[in-house]
């Protein structure tokens, strides 16, 4: 894989870092396979959803049989559990959206073929007041219907979505003394992947052309979900090719002379390191030196041509987790558990936020092209935000 990198790199001392580099495990390239032995996934209690005045939910679903009967892709209930706050499912070949206890259904049947991945996105905001549903990148018409036994407790024109509710994938549910209870009726017999949530109403252009980007409120990652009966399964029939990524990691610089690297030097070292390791792999010897400072790194890179997200995540992790050595000078070792690669939107903008008293230096380098074997690496922009307490 060739990485053409447009790097925007931030180096921060660990004492001043605001980057979240805790252990995360991506689920890109994996799916929830719902069957008789696996009836639902649910959101972990420690993962909370805030009150939302607008949102976008996107996911991929593959049915084991043609979707003509009852099924539920996901359901979100308020903490009081009195009504379905948000959900997506289907019945009688129609797709159903639940919002604030109201039911919306497609005005005509929507064919959903078996053994084929279907892409769903649901958007809403308090200004538009009605949900918009995309199926395989096309808007489908919805109409509100009355549901016996579930009177809406608030209109869809009134925000927000209630915070801290319960969320299940693959099944509807109710709350019993605060415990999530999955319902056996209307379960999804199929596979679900790439469930993501954004805290804004994405545009039609974003929904249709940026389906491989990660959510900003809820990501498709292992730490968000728990299932009492099943874990994620590998998925190879849903490639999602994308080019723009954000990489976060924590690393340590170990110098042979025993000196400590200041933040300005760390900037230059990290630049050379990323330039080198994201080209073909070079065998490096390991040198252990203790008591060195740690740094947090955030980089943006562009992969050309676009590659499957799961493959990029694996390759970046494989390349960055190896010990990097400049013989007789220094060794760089990344914290493997901190390496996390996220597919992001096309617009990349960052500013240096003042959270401590510090000096700020912003530098640019001229365009530099490096040719190595069959790989061409173009550094068209390189910026660094230095934080000094």
From TrEMBL:
Q: Does the keyword Signal apply?
A: yes
What cofactor is needed? Ca(2+)
A GO molecular function annotation here is: metal ion binding
Please name the SUPFAM superfamilies in this protein's record. Concanavalin A-like lectins/glucanases
Q: Which residues form the signal peptide?
A: 1-18
UniProt keywords, alphabetically: Calcium, Disulfide bond, Metal-binding, Receptor, Signal
Query: Which InterPro entries does the UniProt record give?
Result: ConA-like_dom_sf, Neuronal_Pentraxin_Related
Record keywords: Cell cycle included? no
- Write down a Pfam family by its short name: Laminin_G_3
Q: What's the protein here called?
A: Adhesion G-protein coupled receptor G4
């Amino acid at each position: 894989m060739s990485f053409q990198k447009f790097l925007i790199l931030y180096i921060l001392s660990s004492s001043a870092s605001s980057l979240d580099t805790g252990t995360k495990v991506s689920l890109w390239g994996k799916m929830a396979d719902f069957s008789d032995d696996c009836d639902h996934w649910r959101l972990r209690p420690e993962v909370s959803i805030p009150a939302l005045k607008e949102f976008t939910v996107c996911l991929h679903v593959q049915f084991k049989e043609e979707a003509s009967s009852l099924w539920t892709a996901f359901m979100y209930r308020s903490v009081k559990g009195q009504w379905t706050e948000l959900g997506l499912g289907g019945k009688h070949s129609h797709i159903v959206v639940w919002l604030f206890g109201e039911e919306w259904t497609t005005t005509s049947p929507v064919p959903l073929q078996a053994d084929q991945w279907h892409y769903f996105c649901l958007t809403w905001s308090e200004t538009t007041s009605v949900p918009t549903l995309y199926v395989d990148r096309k808007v489908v018409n919805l109409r509100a219907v009355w549901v016996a036994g579930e009177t809406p407790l608030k209109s869809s024109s009134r925000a927000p979505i209630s915070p801290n509710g319960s969320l299940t994938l693959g099944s509807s549910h109710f709350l019993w003394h605060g415990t999530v209870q999955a319902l056996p009726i209307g379960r999804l017999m199929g596979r679900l992947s790439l469930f993501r949530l954004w805290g804004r109403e994405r545009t039609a252009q974003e929904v249709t052309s940026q389906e491989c980007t990660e959510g900003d409120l809820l990501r498709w990652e292992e730490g968000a979900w728990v299932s009492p009966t099943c874990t994620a399964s590998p998925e190879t029939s849903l490639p999602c090719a994308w080019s723009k990524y954000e990489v976060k990691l924590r690393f340590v610089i170990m110098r042979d002379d025993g000196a400590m690297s200041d933040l300005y030097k760390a900037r230059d070292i990290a630049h050379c390191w990323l330039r080198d390791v994201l080209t073909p792999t070079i065998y490096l010897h390991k040198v252990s030196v203790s008591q060195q400072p740690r740094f947090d790194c955030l980089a943006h890179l562009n992969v050309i041509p676009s590659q499957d997200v799961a493959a990029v995540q694996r390759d970046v992790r494989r390349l960055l987790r190896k010990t990097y050595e400049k013989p007789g000078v220094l060794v760089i070792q990344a914290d493997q558990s901190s390496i996390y690669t996220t597919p992001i939107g096309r617009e990349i903008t960052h500013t240096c936020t003042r959270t401590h008293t510090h000096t700020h230096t912003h530098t640019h380098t001229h365009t530099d092209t490096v040719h190595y074997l069959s790989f061409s690496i173009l550094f068209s922009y390189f910026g660094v935000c230095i934080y000094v307490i």
